[in-house]
Amino acid sequence: MIEPDFLRETRASYDAVATSYDRQFRDELASKPYDRAILTTFAELVRRDGNGPVADVGCGMGKVTGYLAGLGLDVFGIDLSPEMVALARRNHPELRFEEGSMTALDLPEGGLAGIAAWYSIIHVPDDLLATTFAGFHRALAPGGHLAVAFQVGDEELVRTEAFGQPISLTLRRRRPEQVAALLTEVGFQLRARLVREPEPYAGGTESTPQAYLVARRPGR
After folding, report:
1. What is the DSSP letter of 154?
2. N or C: which end of the chain has fewer CB within 10 A?
3. For residue 162, what are the contacts with CB-CB under 8 A and spacing of at least 6?
4. If we measure between CA atoms, which residue out of 96, 95, 102, 63 comes closest to residue 79?
């Protein structure tokens, strides 16, 4: 099977900037109280409704994986970029990280209690997003929870340079109602929706509103 161009380009781009990206953004979660609040709520829901593993898909250097582990979840990370996975393993040697694509999760059906996709669906093309969400739904056990974060907007931004390195990376901003509709379409129950205004954080300043959705696979 031929790998889509966007996967090759996304992997190569993050491989090229992994060390610089980690240096600038490793501590950003400490300056994002809304992110931590949603992730903490997600962790409480997972502990309440299930006791299986949780996947942090598009985990990057593992900051969200580490945060969820600190909240008591049995969590592991998956990322497309080998260099990001290597960084995550160095940053959190006690946790499991593996290479993989969220668009084709190689996980048993119904084996997860939760999935976090934290600012990682932004690279998935529109025509693959519903299929990606269907894969999340398949991997979750009945009653399992999904938490998604992304930037709000209608634009596709193409980045050709970052940290002094040439890259080819497309970032897709989306409307919360559109993402919520896709989640519902593949069988999720939407449980919470929050949109906040842009704020400064450790590593930069946001330029768009930020959205958070929490959904559940129906079941027990």
Report:
1. S
2. N
3. 13, 16, 17, 20, 21, 169
4. 102
Start-to-end C-alpha separation, the chain: 37
Tokens of 197: 């205004």
**Residue (of 113, 95, 192) closest to 149 by Cα position:** 192
DSSP 3-state of 91: helix
CB 177 within 8 A of CB 6: no
pLDDT in tens, 151-160: 999 999 999 9
* Whole-structure pTM value: 0.96
- Strand ranges across the sheet with 210-216: 96-99, 75-79, 54-57, 112-118, 140-151, 210-216, 189-196
CB 71 within 8 A of CB 48: no
At 52, phi and psi to the nearest 5? -95, -175
pLDDT digits over 71-127, tens only?
999 999 999 999 999 999 999 999 999 999 999 999 999 999 999 999 999 999 999
Phi, psi for residue 179 in degrees, rounded to 5? -65, -40
